[in-house]
User: What shape does this take?
Amino acid sequence: MKQKVTVTVNGSTELVCNKNDNLLRVLEKNGYEIEYECQEGHCGTCRTIMTDGEVEYAYEPVAYIGKNEVLPCSAIIKSDLNLTIKW
Amino acid sequence: MAYSTFSQEKNDALQEPMFFGNPVNVARYDQQKFEIFEKLIEKQLSFFWRPEEIDVSKDRIDYGKMSDHERHIFISNLKYQTLLDSIQGRSPNVALLPLVSLPELETWIETWAFSETIHSRSYTHIIRNITNDPSLIFDDIVGNKDIVERAEYTSRYYDDLINYQQAYNLHGEGVHKTDVGELDINMHDLKTKLYMCLMSVNVLEAIRFYVSFACSFAFAERGLMEGNAKIIKLIARDEQLHLSSTQHMINLIRSGQDDPEMAEIAEECKQAAADMFKEGAEQEKEWAEYLFKDGSMLGLNKEILCQYVEYITDVRVKAIGIDPIFNVTKNPIPWMKTWLASDTVQVAPQEVEISSYLVGQVDSEVNVEDLGDFEL
Assistant: This one.
């Protein structure tokens, strides 16, 4: 059975999904319109604030990722996450 | 401090800043201060492509069928991109290489500029295909006021930096008479000019190219000029990488991980950088007006394009610590995502609507008459 994890958005909305799901797909499925382009971590367009949690990347990102930021397009969810999505 | 192609001063590149330290002597990559530039080089090399790989022959037929105002949109964008990439193919080398102090960054700058020359070659490939006399298009570029004004805005920052760094390399700090007038050379101003030049390049890669990209992809969404769109898709992929590299440089400077004085300069220039993005966006909106002055194209008009410029400007400025300028929260051209996605995640060509893929396909429609000659 797949292990469930929770992606908390803006401290309130909780999205339950499977561990190892792609973060962008989870957000899109739940109605969050994240701007993205390359989908392999080299453009950085989907950059999103992640205050807590662990992800791994399907492709090693070369785009700039600041402290407490994540690139959802190529991020594989590894634990419960806390995100801040302003738009 | 004169520039030397072989600085014989022994130095530890791991202790050097990105710019204005000792010149690079040995191009060694076994150790890197900022490994990201090595990764960018690897990525750019893996992206290598040649314009001749893309068949643009069907575009000639499409171009022949276009209305005059659609041709104006197509050709004007091509001219503008040709000039921008002409500048980008040479300027990072001329302006930045004499200042750089890290081997991995030096090689990245060369790799970056080289990929821009591929873009320039691809515009010639496209233009040769659609017209018998490419000179008619090329010769008009530097005489076109609307194109020159916008390109000049980018080249101005490069030229300013080049003039200062050349005077600095020749004479050091102080007031010097030069061909461009009297220059008061000091390291703080020189570093400021470098920072603003990087910001201007960032504006170019972050928003300026995207107006042209949107038009190219809008034609292809209608099944027109698909060869051109395939080339622009590859150019856009390269430009995404270049955008990331300037964002890295700017953010490394801002964070203070590199040169503390440059970090202070970044803070001083914060408002000027935001103003530059705003001005760049306004210029691109004026360009959209020029493109559509004789009429819109199906699926794209001036208003949508202007909203898109505002939208991506906000996305881009956030990446370098500037607050959104226009507060446009929704992408008005959602289909751009399809064209800007990397090939690594693209579905097979037969699953997307690239009609040129169907050239030479077998007609699968069978009528009873087709079987009339059959004997059992």
